[in-house]
Each structure stands twice: as C-alpha cells, then as structure tokens.
Write a structure and sequence with these properties.
The chain is of the alpha+beta class. It contains three helices and nine strands, in the order βαββββαβαβββ. A hairpin with a 4-residue loop joins strand 3 and strand 4.
Length: about 130
Amino acid sequence: MIGRLNHIAIAVPDLEAATATYRDVLGAAVSQPLDQPEHGVTVVFVELPNAKIELLHPLGVNSPIAKFLERSPSGGIHHVCYEVDDILAARDRLKSRGARVLGDGEPKNGAHGKPVLFLHPKDFLGTLVELEQA
C-alpha cells in the first residue's frame, strides 16, 4: 500500500542554523523557507536524489512543532512521510485494520500542495506517519 519515502521531517529550534548545516556543511540543495499557516509551521526542504528532508520550525505559539520542541528543545525527527496512490482508499483500509487517523480524518493540503493525513504514532511503533497523495 505505501509507496516511496517522500520525506523525513525534523523539528528544529533554529531554522536558519539547520538550513545552513544542510546547505553549507553537507552540501545539499535547500529551498527557501515557506510558511504554512494552516499547519503552524515554516518549512525548508532539503533535496536529496531519492527523497527529501523537511526542516520544521514553529510558526506561532500554537504550532504542534512548538509543543514538540518544548519536550525536545534541541529538535529531532518529527515524522516520516510515505506516498500512497489513493489517499482515501489508504485511509479507509488503515481504519478498517484499526489504525487511527489524526484530526477529523479528512485529508488536508500539505506543504507540497497535495492531500495528506497523519496516523497515530502509537499504531506505528512510536512513529508519527504522514501519508501523501502521490
């Protein structure tokens, strides 16, 4: 059901410093920061040949990333995103197998402008999973 790995998201307390690390130290191509107010984050994408790294920084005090950074002040892996061919079919199949979809269960547009859903980490070995329509 899941397809290729789309990205690994890392919550960071300092977006400029994290971007510089990937760009200047590791030599990766990085995007400009992109505010995603509907998700409460600012993102920078690190482009890799086979996937992306998504650097997440809080956009406002109610950001879920702000809450994550309260628990892990130096940052860390926030979620893993997999592509699916049909997000509604994937959601329905997962729910029928007991997986919990976060929020209202309806896809929302993610940072790539494609529909996304998040799955409860307790159902996936302690990992927050994002599904993105391929």
